[in-house]
Amino acid sequence: MIKPYFALVFTCLFIPTLATAKTVDWSDYLAGMKADCDTYNLDKAIPANLKPSIAKIVNHRKLDDGTYIGKRVIALKNATAFGYPITKIVLDSTGYVGSTDIYFANSDFMKLRNQFYLNTKEGKLYASEKRKVIDPDSFDGVLTADGNGYDTGLAALTFDLKGKSISCSWAAA
After folding, report:
1. Any idea what DSSP says for residue 73?
2. Alpha carbon of 172 to those of 24, 30, 134, 162, 169: distances in Å?
3. pTM for the whole thing?
4. How many angstroms separate the CA atoms of 82 and 25, rounded?
5. For residue 70, which of 38, 103, 94, 105 has the smallest C-alpha distance?
């Protein structure tokens, strides 16, 4: 009678703690994406506090200046960004065009659209909006938001429901 009771107590007390993994929040590291799709520093060294959530990294070629060219895939486990679970981050660059993509575990990330914006002469242009801002200083002369992102002519932010991702893409002028 003691053995079954002991097994039950052991299972109730210790198994849940063994199965619980600490979630690592990547929000600070990826915060630049929220304002103007700033991903400039993401291709540098990953901070030590984020490394426990990295399942695997497939690197691209490192240049002499410390930047990378090609595709770098960071597969994640027990990771979040902006309050939602993420599965991987992909950094892709040829030196002339590139993108940074965050992949989410589910479609709830679409609620973030009103937190991502482009600073314009008329104020913030949010990814969730559907409007155009005339800006003669921009590449195309107009900045456009379509409810799922924005486009400047040289940079774009896209919320992709089907791919469960947020993408910041850019091209050199």
Report:
1. E
2. 33, 21, 21, 28, 11
3. 0.82
4. 8
5. 94
Total residues found in the chain within this entry: 173
Strands 24-25 and 68-81: parallel
**Count of other CB atoms within 10 angstroms of residue 99:** 19
**CA atoms of 156 and 72, how far apart (whole Å):** 20
Predicted confidence (pLDDT) per residue in 50-61, tens digit: 999 999 999 877
Give the tokens for residue 47.
């901070």
Q: Report how far apart, in Å, the C-alpha atoms of 72 and of each of 24, 75, 122, 162 are.
A: 20, 10, 36, 22
Tell me the C-alpha distance between 1 and 111, whole Å. Answer: 53
Instruction: Enter the tokens of residue 36.
Output: 């103007």
Query: What are the structure tokens assigned to 74, written together?
Result: 């960071």
